[in-house]
Request: fold
Amino acid sequence: MQDKLGGWEDTIVALATPQGIGAIGVIRISGTKAISIVNAMFLSKELGNQPSHTLHVGLLRNGKDVLDEVVIGIFKNPSSYTGEDIIEISCHGSPFVQRKVLDALVQNGCRLAKPGEFTQRAFLNGKLDLTQAEAVADLIASNTDASRDTAIKSMRGGFSKTLSGLREKLIRFSAMIELELDFAQEDVEFADRLQLQELIATLLFSTNQLLESFHFGNAIKNGVQVAIIGKPNAGKSTLLNTLLNEDRAIVSAIAGTTRDTIEEVLNIEGILFRLIDTAGIRAHQADVVENLGIDKSYEKMRMADLVLYLFDVNETSTAELTTVCQDFEKQKIKYVLVANKHDQQTEGTANQFANFKDLIFISAKQNANIDLVKHTLLSLAIGGKLNTESTIVTNARHYEALKKLSNALADVQQAMDNNLPGDLLALDIRQCLHYLGLITGEVTNEDQLDFIFTKFCIGK
Reply:
């Protein structure tokens, strides 16, 4: 028989800590029978009589077989993560012991949880909205201060509060317009059109601000792919080593030393830059392996969020550099020009690149101006100072829904400008509410939930 959880009357169990040997392992059980199932295996106390949010030490048994000495944590509904009764068993961190405990719990009536099923139950039981639930996965996957701070803000309802404020104001006007339809023959207006215009303008501004934050949010969440491109012996591998402060790539005076791409991660003020050192680009050679490396360099260049074009300041002409810039702009590739070996620059080449905007002169070998390269990468990635206090969109699903919301709000604006009747205006406003509901989960379907929660780890 199905309940509001879509058939989840059963009690689920999963290992909540990572696989492998450790000091302890935590096994989580959630559902209507969580306490009774564990109580039958834990003879030290009657768990059903114990207060919520308490810990209890004793032996866990499966029949006559002692499984382990454990600590039992009790979290009773509705004051638990899922909104159901939850038991957390802290056992010793042997994979063998953990497996024995899990097997015993399944034998006694539990079902192994699916990925994200605990958080999905929290959402369906009203403990979290959908944006908060998705932020849980983002927090688990966070690997910088910025990504952690953004996820925590969303998980605690920062993004939800912003959207709820927009939605409540829109619902108020929607109700007034719907009421007008009931009195269509009297030709009355309950919704002040001027106030509605001001509200739509405010909502459109807020929505577009959220959309603009996605570029920054995507950089925080997924990092920025930077392809280091240039001719052989321009110093690409030396620059990579200098940025990373380690000898990651082989450096040689022999042209074509780098045959394949090398990828490393650099953290600049909380933003992860995925640096890709590529094979030097030049006319195809007789060496088949080098040609494959060159082809891969072009592929990485097209896939990158940003291209760092490195050239030897003493070996590159302004005409050649102009052609490179035109090619990047034609392909709509975001790039930064870096002139290497500035320490070896002759007087005759000192001013020839003056007309190239934002060109950076460095010496990768001497570690000169490397901080300027990092600052430029950060500026191009996030467009300004790193700030995670404001509401930031990091989720591609939210971004797509916000784009549709922006278009729907523009339709409402146009409808009011054209003095369209209330029934048509009401339809446009319902569309706006629909897209807001898609983000927070007021409007959803089973397929969408499955897609979102199957990306979670098991046990969360």
The mean pLDDT is 80. The two ends are 25 Å apart (CA to CA). Residues 223-382 form a domain with the Rossmann fold fold (CATH 3.40.50.300). The first strand starts at residue 11 and ends at 15.
